[in-house]
Amino acid sequence: MLSFPRSVCLLLATLLCSYLPAGEAEGKPDMPQNLIVTPQGPSIMIMKWSRPSSAEVDHYFVYVEGEDLKDTTIAEYYIWEGLEGCTTYTFGVKTVSSSGSESDPTVADGRTDVSYPPEPQDLHVVNYTYDTVTLAWRKPATQCDIEKYRVTCQEEGSQPAETVVNETTVEVSQLTPETLYTFSVYASTSEGEGPAASISQTTTTARPPEGKPDMPQNLEVMPEGPSMMLMMWSKPSSIEVDCYYFVYVEGEDLNATTFDEYYIWEGLEDCTNYTFGVKTVSSGESDPAVADGETNVGYPPEPQDLHVMNYTYDTVTLAWRKPATQCDIEKYRVICQEEGSQPAETIVNETTVEVSQLTPETLYTFSVYASTSEGEGPAASISQTTTTAAGPPQNLVAEGINSSAINVSWSEPNLPPSYYLLTDYHNNIDVRIFGLQFMIVELEPCMTLDITVSSYYEDIEKKFPATTRGKTTVGVPPEPQNCSVDVADNYITVNWEKPKTSCKIETYIVNWTIKKLWGSGEEESNGIETRGLSHTENNPPPYHRYTFEIAASVEGIVGDAISCSGTTLETNAGPPVLVSLVSEEQGEVRVTWEPPAEENGNITHYGIYLNDADDYVKEVSEEVRTTTVTLEACVSVDISVAARNGAVKNDGWGERSEAKNVTPAGDALPEQMDCLQHGPDLLACWLPYSTDCPVSQYNLQWEGHVLWSPGATDSNSTTLGWSRDEICYNIPSIPYTKYTVSLNVGINAGKPITCSSTTPMAAPGPPTLEKLQVENFTISVTWKEPLEKNGIISNYRVEWTDWNGRVDSQVTDKNTFSYQIMENSCGGEVDVTVSAKTTDFDEFGERSPPESVLLVNSISSLTCETTEPGEVALNWELQELNCPVNLYNVTWSFTSLWSEDKGSDSKSLIGNVSSDTLEHLKPYSEVSVAIYVDNSTQPANCTTTTQEEVSDPPTNLRQTANNSHSATVAWDSPESVRGKLSSWHLNWTTENGNLVGEQDVSATIKTFQIEGLSSSWTYVVSVMAVNGAGRGKPSNTNVKTAYVPKETPLGLILGLSIGGGVLLILLAIGGFVVYWKKHQTKPPRPAPFMPNVIDSDNDKLYKRQHQSSANQRFQGEGETIDSGTNRELYPDDNMETEPPNETCNDDDTVNEQFTVPENINNILEEAVDRRLSQQVSSNLDHKAVFNRRPSQLVNIRMNSFEEYNKHSSHPNIAAASEHDRRPSHHESRSRSNMREFGRRPSQQVDLGKPNLMEYGRRPSQQIDVGGHNLNEFGRRPSQQIDEHRPRTMEHGRRFSQQIEPGKQRLGEYGRRPPQQGELGRPNLREYGRRPSQQVDLGRPNLREYGRRPSQQVDLGRPNLREYGRRPSQQIDLGRPNLREYERRSSQQIELKRPRQEEFARRPSQQVGISGRSLPSRAPQQPIPPRLDYGDYTRRPSQQTDIGLPSDRAFMRRPSQQFVMNFEGIKE
What is this structure's pTM? Predict the structure, then answer.
């Protein structure tokens, strides 16, 4: 132990403060946030996290729990590679500050994806026979599920066979005895197939050899207990005498003999797989029968290496290793017992446990029991005394952080010590530490330290040690040292030395590349993994370059490789491939070869060898592949070739090629050639001049003179190769021809040898049959001689076969070329052939092709006559009356002469008949008839034309034009004319059938104008087609002449209209006066205030007038004006909203009256043809516009109310009192509604917030003023919705009109349910209609509104301008009268000259065009009291303020009002 003075210790304590953990000095940093672990492949996982917000991060420390995997990174992610597939890992990350302080870890679990599996484990042969092999294996070392195993079986040199199984065993059958097979097993996951595990096995012989008994049968192995196995088998059937058995366990020193067919093994390891074998022993030993078996689970032995890892005053940490057994340990039971007390126990599944809550300075005995599924085994025990409260360091950890440093850290014991002592006696480390961490540096890789950290207490001068073990990481091992290669004749060895490292080298990875230094220079690679320091390749291929790379591997980390190389020795080359030996000129032979397949080195020369000579006759360089050697002509020799390289043996000359024999050729002519007869051909034969001396070629020529055809010859030639045997050539010959044959040799041929011969006669070819002629029952036959006579013709033979199969013939001499065959009857065909014969040939030659003639009766005359429509009568006579006829085949075709129709038909007549009738024929068609007698091919023919028939009626008869005295008709052709169309016949009659006229017209005309008719009269016109059969069926139609109207008395109509209008005005004035006088006692109502409006306010005031709720109409009874108030028109701050302080005059007298303006004549010119309420004066002075209801009058500039009624603001203009209204119109006495009188309560809006946009509506149609819907006008309240507040504004509707809450239908307002369209696509323009007026909601007719159903036009092609009319108002949709809408029939004027001013009126509103109507207006009188509101004929919304007339608020229904955007527009 090292000792230091106290002052030095204090200095060291100060200096070592830098080693204090960050958590002790400044507190731990925050841990990383939001850790996510995601698989990126079978062996790759990516960690991602978020940077802690409050931590100063220098880097991150990442690790995998339970694995020796750790690293650092500065990024917020890390990728782990090389992990096991299908495995769940726990990943952790810590924040590391710049001072080195680590945070608590953030951990997350992740599972890797499915990977390719490794090879199956422990592949072995369970049993094999002469034709079967049973394999077994264990699952590959992977956590992934294995889907299948693919097993291949391959015999050397053959294609592999495969099978797929799901288990870990398979029996491969149908094998060949005594054959070596290689078996490979591949495992597959869902990712794919992994590498194979392979094993080889040779099958047994088909039957045991003589003296060798059969093996035991049906071997079974089963466990009998934890360490016992029972073998059972059957006696071989071929064993007739008693025998015994030899049993053994493969790989173990266990064997025995038994006479029973079973054996029990004892003392085996638990949970261990063994291979058991048994042999039959009789006259000899049989092949073994083997089977695998695994022993059962047994009681486990005691746990191994039980030791105390750490202990404190109240805890002891134990650790141990699994017991020495193959069985799975299910749990461990740990017992802690203080002497004299009851034991305490705990159950764990790991090999470590911490026992807590112990008493300080107390001796405890700890026992650990392991348990399998069979039960619990013996215990391993250890004792440990706990420390005092002043105990050893806690949580001592030594962690190798790299290959040269170990970080040692711990936590304080319960009582902090004075300092800590860190020692490692093996490495002479003894350090005093005042912190909780120490870094041991400058270490070697893989260096293990047994580290002790003791808590030292100066006051009691005691220390309490805690021990642990630390190891530096592996790192990348350095490359091996001193690589070298040794080469010999039959091996090549690579040697190396261990690299300089403290790590234990597990294996060396040896990879090498073999490059062939001859031939095509192929390369191949190989490699192994070895624990030694050398590797040898036996029998390496010659002259190959070996390049070795050796790298060390430590714990799976492969270091750098060292490289060295060597070249194997050359060996003698194999035999070249002798391709050909070709004899060229006299004595010269060309030798051609290919390099040897096995060059085995660098070839330098080739040698040509003769026979068995040791020396070559010629040597050439390695690039030569063909050469010429000169030899003795016609002397046979054997030639071979050999290659030479750098091999030591035989001076480098390799094996010779296979020898080939050759004789140098010489052109020698044979001594003799013979011409021999060979059947019909000529055979030329000769012997070679020498059997050992081939010639270059034989040239054979021949020429023949044909003896049976003067001037004809047969010449040809050919070239033949040499043959050692006799050569015969068959010359294709012509019969009865004299041939001369010649033969010479070589290219430059000399004089030939010849022979000659004449070929024999042969059977001639077929004569040419010229003509067969039949007359009565006699057949005359005529022929010519054959083209190929093949000799001298001696005879001809005529042969015939009749219809009954009877054959007959007749032979004539060589000069006869005709013959007559006499038959006695008729009835069928006779086949006739002719053949010829030569003088020297016994048989007749080939027959001519047979020709047939018919011996049947025929028709001598045939007639066709048309007797009836659609019929043709046939009559005929036979040529021979004595020859009966069995069948007549009648065929006919027709071609219509008036249409495109064509056709044909046929029928058969049986018996002896001479006439027939064809029926149902097309009219006016040309008919062609043919009649065949029996099977005769020569018909009798006739032609005729069928009769015409009356035509069908013309089609599509129609009237095409008319006037007052004529009509034009047109028609189309009939469907069937049935003859030749000659003309058309027309007649026309009155409706009662009186003939008026008739006319025939040309067939080329299909239209006719009938003249001389009466005006506005109906006639019946008939049209008929005329052909050869006469007039056809008629086609009728009605025609009508035009009507000429009488002159309309337009002046009378206009006069009456104007007069009627004036009369109506006078009646209205009179009624008003009577009404006023009747109610003049009614107390007057003070006139409301009319504010002054400047010119700039014109537009605002005009708009407000349209926003007013006063939809007035003129009263019919009494023509008095009952006005409400229009105060809501003037809400602006710059206008006075209160009337002048005037008192109401209650006198019953009339204070003021309206007077007739002075410019009444101008008014008359502008105000004709209207109701008073419809008149608008846009060009007149505003003070003259008095012919309206007050609510309809708007003064555009409103400069002076007096200009309108002379006393607009005078208090004497009385208003109707409150009792003259309906009850709903009365104002509240307690809550004066200054503006909202004259309405029903439900029509009154918020007085404080006038609805500026609510114009042209009934009050009931006005919506919430505060949140008004600017587009919601012209509706009842039940039709109004609030686009901004769905459903909450669905008030004032019937329940059936309310839409679903939450699904606001912005466009479907103001309708009853049947008017509502599709909610998803509201018809924004379909409002204010009856259901019958609504068009297709999907494709709305944007202009078809405001009509009755009868006014709506075709929705598919809407007439966009024909709206707002009754049916009687609608004109021709094709040419719409754009001005004539919204009228009754009586309102419509002549369509050709529309009245631009006449629209939207009732008949009573229309005046004469030329006349003038004087509109009148009675002076406004005070309205007398009216207790009965039944006399009141207006709706409240039509009542306006008497004092606020307007020259723009004309007296119409809302649908009649126009929005006038500029001054002066007319209606």
Answer: 0.30
